[in-house]
Amino acid sequence: MEKFSKRFESEVLNTTTLDAPESRQLASAFVSNWYHVAVDYIARTSLLLSEELDIIIHSCLMGHKIQVKTTLATHAPLVEDAIRLIESIQLPLPSSVNSSTSASSNSEADALNRDVVVLTFDHSGKPQVDINETNEFCREWAARLVQAGSNRALADATLLRGWIEVVKMQLTQELNHIRKLCETAVMDNYALYEAFLYLKNNPNKDVLLVLLLKEGAADTNSKEVLHTRAAEPLDLPAVAFRAPG
Hints:
This protein has 245 residues and is mostly helical. The protein has helices spanning 2-13, 21-32, 34-38, 41-48, 53-62, 76-89, 106-113, 136-150, 157-185, 189-200, 205-216, 220-225; strands spanning 65-70, 116-121, 127-129.
């Protein structure tokens, strides 16, 4: 909505006056397109990105930067819609989350230090992403969005945007919960075990773990708790239990 308002100001209000009939017609046409541009992009872009959407959601939650590219000027609206959707999904990560943390396995280091994910629209407008990392949680989220894009009667776009914000809020609450467990686990093995079980049974555990490991770079206590020894890329780590110090 804010971007749409700024575009209206720069493309209409700052370039013409509303005194002339043709200017009022231009303003009316711009405003009448508000729902399509500022709201309905979630459903239609989710459908467009359907095969890659869970990967894009996963990258957004991991805190990766996502570049959207195309070689055709006619695909500029696709790029603009994709950027809007990505921005609506991305979490408001704290400043302590960065890409400077090292990990004990190459796969984890890749996830922690990855800087950019590239989403490209080819000549036919088909999206392609240069990675294939996802999880159960992101697949379920993507399926919900694609379903709404396939059948507009199932969900109003404004309600869909509200649902996205609710999911993001729940994810933030999960991070806060595990963060508190990790802080307590420095002196309490039961809290450490509870954090282990919480991550083990969470369908979004790889995202939560990576975000916590990134935070651990600036938090010595959390870094001590989150020792990793993963057998598979981003699998749940074996946690080193310690006696209270």
